Queue: 2 jobs
Job 1
Amino acid sequence: MTGPSAAQKSPAPSPARPSPAENMTQDRVLRRTLSMQTHGTSPMAMLTMWNDWSLHLATAPDKQLALAQKAQKHWTAWLRFVAQGCPAEPGSRPISPKKGDRRFGHEGWTKAPFAAMEQAFLLAEDFFDYATSDIPGLAPSHDQAMTFLMRQMLDAMAPSNYLATNPEAVTRTLESKGRNLQRGSLALLEDWRSAVKGQKPRPAKRVGKDVATAPGKVVFRNDLIELIRYAPTTKKVRPEPLLILPAWIMKYYILDLSPENSMVRYLTAQGFTVFMISWRNPDAAQAGLGMADYLEQGPKAALDHIVSATGAAKVHTAGYCLGGTLLSIAAAAMARDGDDRLASMTLLTAQTDFSEAGELMLFINESQVSVLEDIMARQGYLDSSQMMGAFQMLRSNDLVWSRMVRAYLLGETDAPMNDLMSWNADTTRMPARMHSEYLRQMFLNNDLACGRYPVDGHPVSLRDIRLPVFGVGTESDHIAPWKSVFKIHSLSHADVTFVLTNGGHNAGVISEPGHKRRHFRIHTTRDKDITLSPDDWRDRAQEKDGSWWPSWAVWLAEHSGPPVTAQKMPAGLCDAPGTYVLKE
């Protein structure tokens, strides 16, 4: 990007790539066939990990002795607990569930024989966690992966998952005379039929009717994006428009859900002119689109149009998740090329350094990426169902087993989808080339943080970014851990205002004013200030109750000019939410 004149240039075409059919070598066919039997997981990576762990454990006699001692201690404690009649007092129990584990909250787990089952499971969980941790000589990545894998295996065997060993399910069955199991069986049969037919859950909310209802116009369209301009709701607006880049892994309207929790509506009510990118849901025809295409046809094309259409000299920008990563690339390229059109940059749960990207990294290694490339080579994209499995396993208790217990054992099948659940069911695909480049350049090689990521043939550096930066991390984010998001402090030459809010990757961001039980910490670190570790920052940050949105709106206003009269809305190409968001 070299300034406003860049709008006159045609995007450079991506280098020619082999077609999906040409990519299907015999090696790939074999690996793809094997991986399909393991639900898209690389069997070679799994065997390598198991061998590394077992061989190092076999040559660690001190660790083996410690394991034997722990097993004896747990067994003795459990026998004593059972012999005492499984007393309900917390202090008499050998072990307690970890914070956030809601599987054993029902009062039936405090009574025999279910209390004995719960304690036996929790003690086994503690034992195997120790058995897969801190093995001398074991590669750290394999250490963490084995601990994670063992936890997944044990989660599947939890007594809460089975009718005979779940006191809540037993009680419900007796009270309802089995009607819960009848409803659960029908739900199981329906889910099985949908899986066989390849059908996905249908969103309960209608796009443009129930969600994505903020009034606006699609004012620009290319092969990859529709740019939505939202109607102002105040007579005066800030002269700097705000461009939002959502993640293309899901539909854009998470930031415009129901009217009461729409970030778009909140921002327009604060006097900002809001533009939003709506990404196309790609299919096999877009298999050759790469990261460069997303940069050219996404933020670059949108920014060129906004500046041209509004006459604004500066534009605020915000990127959510993958959109924030792409925005940081764009900002670094613009800084390198002397393009000063950005007024600020906001990163919402967006990573720029992937060296500590959390448990998701356990799925990303050379073998696993190769398997995904084998799968994508045939179909031209990665389907949502092939992505969601990994995300669900990061929180398998909440997203897999708890759902199955409530639906199939307790018969709770009538709970309606809320707007966030409906959005989550409205899935998208990822072009083969883009997804491969993203995994390799970000997760595997960490090129952006290391100053190796190329734009227009030359690497960009986040150190060139000197814009005001507003970052948001969430306390229980399993996709973009907040300490990873926090790394923008040391990567840029910027004054960074950082917010740490409660909630997860999505719920922490959708935290509208009035939302119950919300709180956050906020602190600004100037470029000239001493470096703070994430923990030191948390100790120093100011804690506040409520939503972080008002603090962001104040920050945006402080980096904006005096309000001016709102411009008249253009005719546009069509009304919001546009056409790309409706493509299944």
Job 2
Amino acid sequence: MAMLPLGALMLAASVSGWAQSSAAPGAEQTLKTVTVTETVENKDTLQTKKTSIGKGTQDIRDIPQSISVMTEKLIDDRKLDTLKDALHHTAGITFAATENGTDQDIRLRGFPVATVGDLLIDGMRDPSQYDRDTFNYDRIEILRGSASMLFGRGSTGGVINQVTKQPQLLDQNDFETTIGSRGYVRTTADFNLRTGEDAALRLNVMANKADNGGANIDKYGIAPTYRWGIGSRDEFSVGLFHLNVDNVPQSSMRYVDGNVPNVRAGNFYGTQSDYLLGQATHGTAKHTHRFAEGGELRSQVRSGVFDRAQWGTNAAFAAAPLNPATVTGANLGPSTVLQRQGLTPRKDRFNGTYFQSDYSNEVTWLGMKHQILTGVDAASERANRYLANNGIGANFNKGNTTIGTPNDGRTLAVAPVYRDSSNYTASSMGAYVQDLVQVAPHWKLLGGVRYDKFKGDFNNLVYAAATGNTLTRTDNAQMSIGAFSYRSGVLYQPTPSASFHFSYGTSFNTNADTYQYTTQQTANTPPEKSRNIELGAKLDWLDGKLSTRAALFRTEKSNERTTDADFAGTAFLLSGKRHTAGIELDVVGRLTPQWEVYFSYAYTPIAKIDAAGSNAAAQATVGQRVGLTPKHSGSAWVSYQATPKFRVAGGVNGSSENFALAGTSGAAQLTARAASYLVADAMAEYKFTQDTYMQFNVTNIGSKIYGDQLYPGFVITGAPRTVKMTVGTRF
């Protein structure tokens, strides 16, 4: 228990004591017997009814918000190698490209996820930007809507939780190798060794290379975890994670007539001097204490270092006389000349240490059953950003090529040389309490409140000239913010297979978002605030083998910070307001013993700018649609077990017309758009034995070109048709 701070111990002791005092007199105060018969179920089914995204393991039906879960089986079936790949297969998620071509700007219901720290690992913040791989995932959980009461700052559109593989009390090893199009080779291994009566070791490793027509992949990862005391009064685990990435990123392209250019899918117009370099290394320690009366205290601490450097290419159209004065869809062809413009080079290092301790229990008080959840958390973060110091910046000329000569092998004699640009240190603490009360046989009420305190110290470094070496000024800013968040809901559960809910939750965003290196003006701006209202249902069918989830939602940001050219004060305005509203639907599980289905769909008819700054440009956006919020998005996957040894599956994912973001308000950039698309995938699997199999996958069967990541000035297209063959075995 040495790793628990005094505050966490006092919190747990007080709640535990209250719970014991509310038990019936003479109640037995011994630890309940725990029988451990663990299996790796998420590898064998698309459906799960449990989640850990709400701080502790809970039934999905008891959470009054929309939740989507992608299990390891779906990830394996569709061969989804990265978190970004996987998120294409759940509704309501889009991707923004950024000025330097980074690929982690994820949007959920039209609101940022990654850039405000709404990515989690096992329920704890994972804010750094790196190329997240799925090799150590048990499942991916998406909680939609405001949830700052649980997680602190962020979570306007929702949060995404990466659940890692944990040691199990069994001896089981999985090994597979995949080869595919464009030199693709990937090997993963999952070793689980039972080392004692209540202890086990698990080791996951991955190596992945591919040519990708010039956009190369070269990465490896390792994740060992040791867990002991499994199922006992005190359970511990320690784990390490390391991921190394040395890739050449996919190039972006300018729009043609405001649309995605009609070139061959997968064409690479960058150089072999482009790079995406990254290392993510972190260690985690966890402790679970089970109290005699049934309460449970879960504590974990994680500390890591994340390095990333990237220099990509934007393929722009060379000016006349090399091209017509205006390149259009009519005159675009193999001889069209492209000027390779270097995107802004970027390098950063992020250090983060996070702690959280969460107590849960079921108690009876005043004749009603209460499910208590309470906890504390703290974080310490430090980051440094570096920019090029040798005249290499945005639009650096990397030489010309043509539409008809992709991947021409060009290398450059120069590369960015970096120097310090900005840095920050920040700390935060939060505490929350939530109660789910059974007020009647079929009715439950939920209420929760949280308080957060955030402090930051930010520095922007100013030099004498773009290529100078003399530091002339440091612009320093401090931020100190405290904020409350709330969550409430009503659950009506008439049967064990039906749950209906109505919920209300709030969230807030500071101006110290991930990679937002603030100035004095932003430091003095109060946090943005958001809220989510939702009416939903979770229904199980066919004796629980099929789950359906539906929700009507309205998510709004009521005081979004805006830039106003007519305002010259020491803080930004909080005059912006926008909201999205729509319907979400999930269907997952077995229709019959042979047929299994996964379906995720979002209809978002309303995504609107309601208010903006007072100047003319800002006012012109009022009433416009929010960018990166298509009306329709979704994914479907159907699997059929034709014989005991042979299984086939197929599916689609797609989106209606999508627009890039324009300006700070989030309005749609109407001249930077991607047409609607539908991409089909297929899979066939044959089992030679119960434990050895071969699998074939074809993704984007029609090799359709579509806009995947959108930016007002350019677009990054989706992957072309890819064929993969996998051989795997379990022993």
